[in-house]
Amino acid sequence: MTIFRRVTIVGLGLIGGSLGMAIKRRRLAGRVVGVSRHAQTLRTARRRRVIDGGTTDLETGVRDAELVVLATPVDTIAPLAERAARAIQAGAILTDVGSTKAALVRRLERTLPDHIRFVGAHPIAGSEQRGVESANAALFDGTLCVLTVTSRTDRSAVQRVGRFWRALGVKVLTMSPQAHDQALAVTSHLPHVVANCLAQTAHARSLPQPPRSLLEMTRIAASDPELWDDIFLSNRHELLAAMRRFERHWARLRDSITRNDRAALLAMLQAAKRRRDGFEPR
Ligand code: NAP
Which residue from 7, 112, 177, 209 has the highest number of Cβ atoms inside 10 Å of its Cβ? Predict the structure, then answer.
């Protein structure tokens, strides 16, 4: 079922590469074109069936696209969107996959010409891996994608991008960019902060084999630092609010241990268990 005649993906990393593979596997586009800064990445992407063709020139790559997906680090998305907007054809839709949304959408609503239809998107899927070599056609299966909507967002473009993600086997949720960043601060960005501190505190050599729990809790600390500094800083207000809430729980737990207060400690362990039991999808 073809949804777009031609899709161009800018940035063929884990997310852009997986998206290209998934589109091709499900035949959702007549042609998938990739834009990368490196000819070698384009060759690998062709070999791995991520794209049908590619270019290192952004303007050439986006010119005939019906849908342009920006899949580069968060801080690079706005400048690339502004360049792409000058080259794309009338009626084309511009979207992205960036992990934070409020600053990006605020900037693009100021800088993009009125006729450019931009839909902010964040597929909530991924891993600590990076690059086109890690691309995986099943990465998005059964996951969630948030589309951001403001009073200025073109509703027909949102519907079309929503249809595209649903055809990839993804549930689609629309919300404001601010609500997205608030939700992701506590569910994704704070866990990264905690994994970072834990990875810096724990010593792999303390035991011949690290416990499974340590590996699970620190897995995301192995993510690309150059993706995550952008994410933390572009969502710093929401992330700092989440960190303050975390610090209050941390301090209460530490105090109960310091005071040898078994009742307070037990109450906190029970409260956390009730919360965690409710995390599993119903
Ligand atoms: P990645 O594997 O490192 O891929 C990023 C790609 O962006 C690279 O392949 C690189 O392509 C390109 N790139 C890097 N810097 C650039 C620059 N200055 N200008 C132009 N292109 C540049 O990262 P990723 O995990 O796919 O992340 C891409 C986006 O998806 C980010 O915005 C991230 O927030 C978002 N996201 C990530 C995850 C996750 O779990 N990883 C989940 C959801 C959303 P070339 O070097 O070939 O040009």
Answer: 7
